[in-house]
Amino acid sequence: MKVSPKGLVVGMLFLALGTGTTWAQNGYDLFQQALVKERAEGRLDEAIQLYQRIVQEFAGDRTLAAQAQLQIGICYEKLGKVEAQEAYKRVMEEFTEQYDVVAEARTRLVALEQHTDSSGEKGIVVRQVWAGPDTDSLGSPSPDGRYLSFVDWSTGNLAVRDLANGQNRLIAGKGSWSEGFALYSRVSPDGKQVAYSWFDLKDHFYDLRLAEIDGSNSRLLYRNEEVPYVQPADWLPDGKHILAVFQSKDRTNQIVLVSVADGSVRVLKTLDWRYPQKMSFSPDGRYIAYAFPPKEDSPQHDIFLLATDGSREIPLMEHPANDLLLGWARDGKTILFASDRTGTLDAWVIEVADGRPQGSPKMVKRDIGQIGPMGFTRKGSFYYGVRLPRNDPYMATLDPVSGKVLAPPMRITERFQGSNTFADWSPDGEYLAYILRGDEYPAALGSRTLCIRSLESGEEREIPLKTLSFFGQARWSPDGRFILGIGGGTKRAGIYQVNVQTGEVSLRAEGELSHPALSPDGKKIFFVHEEPGEDSSVRVRDLQSAQEEELYGVALPSWIRHMALSPDGQQLAFAIDDQGTQFVKIMPAAGGEARELLRLTKPEPGILHAFAWTSDGRYLLIGRWSGAPADHLYDAGSGKTELWRIPADGGKLENLGVGIDWMSRLRVHPDGRRIGFTGGPQRFEVWVVENLLPELGSTQ
After folding, report:
1. Helix or strand (DSSP H, E) at 315
2. Which of 123, 197, 495, 567 could form a disulfide with 115 if both were Cys (CB 3.0 to 4.6 A apart)?
3. Does the structure show a pLDDT above 50 at 647?
């Protein structure tokens, strides 16, 4: 989730650029001035001049100069000037060794491509409409293209952005994070209402709610404890029903229509545990298009058409490639979809008449990149979100006795910068594992790749995880034969193990589980159980008998956030959030009393995504926000995550002096000196494509 405020973005850029030499520090001061002009004051022309000075006067600092040149392009792009393309090309041509900056310049350049046909008429135009630390792409455009609905992550409330003046306005919510937060919103056909999911932090399940777009009123539309997850997908064109997905406690899914008048539900189709990706009504309301894995073990999606009256369903697009629905064009005759059938993810269209495909699909835009569809306006403009990943695996070196930093954080790999996640060190300390995501949309929704890297030679071996659309929180098994983690997607959610020699993937425990850890003898697995709408607990399962025991539980609205098994397998440490107050507790792994080790309350910075034992079992390492305090458990405040430690038998917190943005996946090498973790927040942008289907005309 994108939650960082503007101050954190400035800090992120400076951390990425490094400290530089003394003479170059003036360049970083100048860079900060330029950022203020660009981000805080909106004086883009003045910011460009400052960035140009940096490129000219501090050319010797290649990292700084490359970032400044990239910012020149971004400023020109915000101004809508063609100079942006030349600025990005210069980054790619003159700073080839600055991989992450070049990758972003290439992504932006591709998105800015404009095409002109032989008659000189305006062709496809792609432009950015929103970028910044508060950007969110989980909503939709209003039919007239004036507003975007979104989640305001500083409060968790539902909001709209006026695209004409760039102003944001809250329209529904509880005022703060104390009760819950909004997700997934869809603007009604008349542009007057917004349907959205609301996650109740007290009961830990989702409601379906409605809000007036002017903020005058909001109301609960549907709530059912037997349906802990609800996601609105689209509105019936007459505005009387909302198309949604319901997920029951047994994790089966349904495609439903919910009445706007009284919240009554009509089930259109009952599915298994597989989840439909993106659903869209035809403009006449007769059909629903959606993407769905055709087989239970399929990593790809096909596109299906379901008659709204339930009379029939047909496969619209059956192909070995991954076909992902983007939306139904306003002409009612064309469906826009993404497909990787050519090797890159491209935009295609297929003509449809009376619920059946007409002819063969046609490509309309090549290499659209990693996008999230938001929807069409009446004029045919297509809005979408772009995720610019910034996660990378890092390694720092510490003295295990004194805690003194011996080497600051450095990237572990230079490949696919910004798109990788740290996993774990092997038990013998000779290898590390990390998750390679890549930078294409199919990688975001489809397979992952597990990389095994030799610390001695630097050689890497890749293990494709073709049947898992996500895999994380990975831990190496004590015997070094498997890597264990949470996964799911094309398979049921649960804890999976991957054979590091054969790549075979197998399910070890099913359910909404997290933070898996194997006992030293490999016979038991510890994890956190966290089904939606249920109390969370720390549990242990005997892998031979499949018998399961609850070791510690908390009642809603409290929930268990992290859990780690000590190196000797004798103790469990876990973090609990209780409506903003956070506790760290330790208990025997065999069961027994839990003792409180640490309590953090506002305005103290809290624990966030970083939690591990040192290799000798004497300390717990935690990630803790520095700078301004967070307003809620999801908000970073202004600052970065710093690494702290606390004695496992009790004592004071000690700051170890290692900091990075958004630290997570903390792992300690068996030598006790090397610390691995994932660092860097993600950024989101919203873009619009105009004239994507010019031959179809407008349906105003």
Report:
1. strand 313-317
2. 123
3. yes
- Closest to 529 (Cα-Cα) out of 571, 559, 558: 559
Check whether 223 has a pLDDT greater than 60.
yes
Q: Is the pLDDT of residue 5 over 70?
A: no
**Average pLDDT value for the chain:** 83
Quote the CA–CA distance of 49 and 30 in Å, as a whole number. 11
Interatomic CA distance for residues 476 and 427, integer angstroms: 7
**Nearest-angstrom CA–CA distance, 568 and 587:** 13
Q: What is the dihedral of CA 529, 534, 535, 537, to 10 degrees?
A: -10
Has residue 21 got a pLDDT over 60?
A: no
- Cα separations in angstroms, 405 against 218, 255, 659: 52, 54, 11
Bridge partners of 167, per DSSP, are 162
Task: Give dist(CA 108, CA 104) in Å, integer.
Answer: 6
* Among 89, 90, 196, residue whose Cα is nearest residue 148: 196
pLDDT for 24 beyond 50:
no
Which residues, at least 6 apart from 166, have a Cβ–Cβ distance to it below 8 Å? Answer: 130
Angle between helices 22-35 and 6-17 (to 10 degrees): 150
CB of 487 closer than 8 Å to CB of 477: no
Q: How far apart are the first and last CA of the chain?
A: 35
pLDDT given at position 639: 52
Q: Is-contact 157 139, C-beta < 8 A?
A: no
405 C-beta neighbours (distance < 10 Å), count: 16
Q: How far is the C-alpha of 472 from the C-alpha of 129, rounded, in Å?
A: 32
Residue ranges with strand state E in 366-447: 371-376, 382-388, 392-398, 405-411, 420-425, 431-436
User: pTM of the full predicted structure?
Assistant: 0.73
Per-residue model confidence as pLDDT tens digits over 91-138: 988 998 787 788 788 877 876 754 333 333 456 777 888 887 788 889
Q: Which residue has the tokens 């490359």?
A: 66
Q: Rounded to whole angstroms, how far apart are CA atoms 277 and 317? A: 14
- Specify which residues 572 forms β-bridges with: 565, 587
Q: Give yes or no for a contact between 77 and 85, defined as CB atoms under 8 angstroms apart.
A: no
Residue by residue, DSSP assigns 64-92 as HHHHHHHHHHHHHHHTT-THHHHHHHHHH
Tokens of 108: 């932006």
177's CB contacts (< 8 A; 6+ apart) are 155, 156, 201, 580, 631, 632, 633, 634, 635
141 upstream amide cis, omega within 30 of 0: no
Name residue 307's beta-bridge partners. 287
CB atoms within 10 A of CB 21: 10
pLDDT band at 15 (very low <50, low <70, confident <90, very high): very low
C-alpha distances in Å from residue 204, one per residue of 85, 247, 347, 348, 358:
46, 14, 37, 39, 45
- Kindly report the backbone phi and psi dihedral angles of residue 649, in degrees, each rounded to the nearest multiple of 5, phi listed first: -95, 10
Whether the Cβ atoms of residue 389 and residue 437 lie closer than 8 Å to each other: yes
